[in-house]
Amino acid sequence: MLMLVTGDNFIQLFLGWEGVGLASYLLINFWFTRIQANKAAIKAMLINRVGDFGLALGIMGCFTIFQTVDFSTIFACASAFSEPHHYFLFCNMEFHAITVIRILVFIGAVGKSAQIGLHTWLPDAMEG
């Protein structure tokens, strides 16, 4: 958790993010002899992968656009990339690059905080 909070770039943030996910799995599966606790831990890990995948794609998008993963550089350069000529092309549709990155990072946050459809593991986690 400390690495997640104090990281000054996306790589450190992602490693801390994965550490929190691992700790969550281990805490839910503390009573490993209970079958229901095992199932709940696996369910939590699988659903958290959705958020992890969204965050990883957002980090890759940031690196593609800004050529860095450092927060201070990205925040300093973000205003220059808000112009309308920075787009991702997907299935013959253009999407604004910064908006796509924001949505992907948002999906990551939603997955980790168990909200908006990705909350189904949370009641089961009380078994562990």
TrEMBL record:
InterPro entries: ND/Mrp_TM, NU5C-like. It is a multi-pass membrane protein. Residues 8-127 form the NADH:quinone oxidoreductase/Mrp antiporter transmembrane domain. The chain crosses the membrane at residues 12-32, 53-81, 87-110. GO terms for biological process: ATP synthesis coupled electron transport; electron transport coupled proton transport. Keywords: Membrane, Mitochondrion, NAD, Translocase, Transmembrane, Transmembrane helix. It holds the Pfam family Proton_antipo_M. One of its GO terms (cellular component) is membrane. It is found in: Membrane. One of its GO terms (molecular function) is NADH dehydrogenase (ubiquinone) activity. Belongs to the complex I subunit 5 family. This is NADH dehydrogenase subunit 5. It comes from Trichocoleopsis sacculata.
